[in-house]
Amino acid sequence: MKRLKKIFFFFFALFFICFAAGGIFIAYTLRNLPDPARINERQVNESTKIYDRTGKTLLYEVHGEEKRTVITLEDIPNQMRQATISVEDAGFYKHNGINYKGIVRALWVDLASKNLSQGGSSITQQLVKNSFLTSERSIIRKMKEAVLAIRLEKRYSKDDILEMYLNQIPYGSNTYGIQAASQTFFGVDPKDLTLGESALLASLSQAPSFYSPYGSHTDELMKRKDYVLGRMADLGYITGREADDAKHEKLVFLPPRQNILAPHFVMMVKDYLTQKYGEDTVESGGLVVTTTLDVSLQSIAERVIEEGAKRNETLIKAKNAALAAVNPKTGEVLTLVGSRDYFDIQHEGNFNVATALRQPGSAFKPFVYATAFKKGFTPDTVLFDVPTEFNPGCNPGATSTIVESKKNSRGLILEGDKCYHPGNYDEKFRGPVSLRTSLAQSINVTSVKLLYLAGANDSIQLARDMGITSLADPSRYGLSLVLGGAEVKLLEMVGAYGVFGNDGVLNPLTYILEVRRGDQTLEKKEDQPRPVLDTNIARIINDVLSDNEARIGVFQRNSSLYFPNRRVAVKTGTTQEYHDAWTIGFTPSLAAGVWVGNNNNDPIQQKGSGVLAAAPLWRAFMDQALATSTSEEFPKPEYQKPEKPILRGIWQGNTTVQIDLISKKLASSSTPQEFIDDVAVGDPHDILFWIDRSDPVGPKPEHPEDDAQYVSWEWAFQQWVKNSGFKSMSFDSLPKNYDDVHTPENRPVITIGLTTDLADTFSFSFRISSKFSLKVAEVSFGDTVIKSVAWPVVNQDYPINVPKKDMPESPTVSIKAYDMVGNSNEAFLTPAPQL
């Protein structure tokens, strides 16, 4: 019994101590709380300033001087009050200042998510927070907020509190209070607001930056407005019919009247800051933000987009355009124009297309080709651009008479009679096409085949690795993925292309260099390079996309994609039915992309392809952006010859014989490499006969017919063989003798004549005898060519006089001769003259 008493007294004492300590803690915490009578004396807020990359040009000031006009509750219509109460605090007129249900709900969510992100505050609590307290998220601040809310309710009536709330709360765009908000967004006083306008303004208070009518989240804003109307109907403030009518009400916003540079970029930065630091901190926390924006490039981009979009609207009915540029070496976003005119609210100019999801068309192809190159395919690998049925459930022969696809809107391979046999942009078929040509000329049929060979999942994974975040569900996409059947963001595509230009190293996209608050650095950019693609594969893609000769056939030699004085890699894209046109290109230090189209997805005219609609804008930007920079070369890739002939581009058979191109005989050890041609012998077949797509460099499949695509591809290939008149080479038709042109005895013979060593000049002569006409002769000291003779005459003397001041200390003179069929020889002046 005594033991139980001791335990009881122990816990009683412990409880008393904890209770007393808690009381003392609460009393200490709540000491010196502000007087609710001073509710209208708001704390001084400090604006957030957003600068360019130099930290000198102010792009935007968040907050600044508050726009506010105080009005009485009688001047605020009932529907505005009711909309606010419905969405912020349905029990406002019933509680004592604290929304207990909201707090319990918020606490539950906070505990589940292990943070203090939820609100749950009543209108009174929000008023207290905005008037007296900081934006700190903590239990102590919540306690202070609750106590002050109760005190405020005891001092003021509910209508007084609601009036103060509607005059105090921020609505975004430096606007505080319902009077300023009504005038800023709709140009009317609150008493003249419609039901739809009232619901929209009530929607802003939860997150003014995110839901701003001038920001990039207008779709979310409209959904929240409809939610407010639904809540009003549920609470009996309006009828369901009135709610439905207001949901369909057309809202017309006034254009923003603010000093802002690079608005789409700035709003993107502001969204980021709000998500990371909170609405209150961004609106009034005095942040100083240095961004990555290059003001000079931004000015160029805005001018190019405005002029180009105006031209496109007239020519091809494309009203909008967007541009983004990134430094691949750092991941820094240098410029971003999200739409033609940010301030044209009536045409959704504030919508940021650069960060919106759009289909990329053929601009997605480089990721597929890079995946294929990783698996052993090469730019020389040949695929057949012939009418091909890709649905194994369909008759392969249908493509000979049916050119238009019966695919669904996404181009997925379907069962039954929904066949898929895509065509090309120019409605032509080319037969055998190398992967270099296929990518450079953006040929669809061979690209769809390559996606099947490379694998859709692996191609998507590579795109993800390179920075594309929107490809969440690979099961959604079929073979049309390579033609742009997925949705991506222009900014992320530009960043991913930059990975190619940066030798396969990803620098994550960033638009913030530094965020400071007073003397405290809250955030500072740190380089985070991450290799995501083999260096040589990236260089192969760069080599192909910058190969102007490979583009010719679909693109003109002097198209907007060609830069005569520097190598620039570039790819265009056009979606089916011409909804989107793209051009993305890059150098090692600058990647830029342009999108052209209509925000409402209306198609542009058929001549509005990527090269005609988007490329001129892209080229105009690149010309000016690169004007003052030195030309950069892409490092050359290393090309290995795979063992399998089919991967080297030899499709005529799987056995090869080396033939000399000059003599047309078997190549010998003396035949120069550049004159050797690998000739295939045997029965020609399509690629699936020779490779297993799960292991392209591995053994030939024993049963190629087990591949679901084999029958269709092979049938299409054999139809081409039959109709083209192609004849394969047999072993009997091969030459029996070896190359007799490239032999040691046929090499040019060089004879060095009399040498003369004068005080200031070294002289000698040479002549060349040759069986074949000569192409060039070169005289060198070491690695330095001092004399080159084009088309030298056989057996003619050529005198050489060299000033001794131009000679190295221990010169070795060499003379090289090359004939027209590739034979060469070299002679040396021995001993070298003593100087």
From TrEMBL:
Ranges annotated as spanning the membrane: 7-30
Cellular component GO terms held in the UniProt record: outer membrane-bounded periplasmic space; plasma membrane
The Penicillin-binding protein transpeptidase domain, residue ranges: 324-390, 416-622
Keyword Protease: yes
Sequence similarity: In the N-terminal section; belongs to the glycosyltransferase 51 family.
Keyword Cell wall biogenesis/degradation in annotation: yes
Domain Glycosyl transferase family stretches: 58-232
Matches recorded under Gene3D superfamilies: Biosynthetic peptidoglycan transglycosylase-like, DD-peptidase/beta-lactamase superfamily
SUPFAM superfamilies found in the cross-reference section: beta-lactamase/transpeptidase-like (SSF56601), Lysozyme-like (SSF53955)
Keywords, ordered alphabetically: Carboxypeptidase, Cell membrane, Cell shape, Cell wall biogenesis/degradation, Glycosyltransferase, Hydrolase, Membrane, Multifunctional enzyme, Peptidoglycan synthesis, Protease, Transferase, Transmembrane, Transmembrane helix
GO molecular function: penicillin binding; peptidoglycan glycosyltransferase activity; serine-type D-Ala-D-Ala carboxypeptidase activity
Compartment(s): Cell membrane
Known catalytic reactions: [GlcNAc-(1->4)-Mur2Ac(oyl-L-Ala-gamma-D-Glu-L-Lys-D-Ala-D-Ala)](n)-di-trans,octa-cis-undecaprenyl diphosphate + beta-D-GlcNAc-(1->4)-Mur2Ac(oyl-L-Ala-gamma-D-Glu-L-Lys-D-Ala-D-Ala)-di-trans,octa-cis-undecaprenyl diphosphate = [GlcNAc-(1->4)-Mur2Ac(oyl-L-Ala-gamma-D-Glu-L-Lys-D-Ala-D-Ala)](n+1)-di-trans,octa-cis-undecaprenyl diphosphate + di-trans,octa-cis-undecaprenyl diphosphate + H(+); Preferential cleavage: (Ac)2-L-Lys-D-Ala-|-D-Ala. Also transpeptidation of peptidyl-alanyl moieties that are N-acyl substituents of D-alanine
Main location class: membrane
InterPro entries reported for this sequence: Beta-lactam/transpept-like (IPR012338), Glyco_trans_51 (IPR001264), Glycosyltr_51/Transpeptidase (IPR050396), Lysozyme-like_dom_sf (IPR023346), PBP_transglycosylase (IPR036950), PCN-bd_Tpept (IPR001460)
Lineage: Bacteria, Candidatus Sungiibacteriota
Gene Ontology BP terms: cell wall organization; peptidoglycan biosynthetic process; proteolysis; regulation of cell shape
Domain of life of the source: Bacteria
Protein name per Swiss-Prot or TrEMBL: Uncharacterized protein
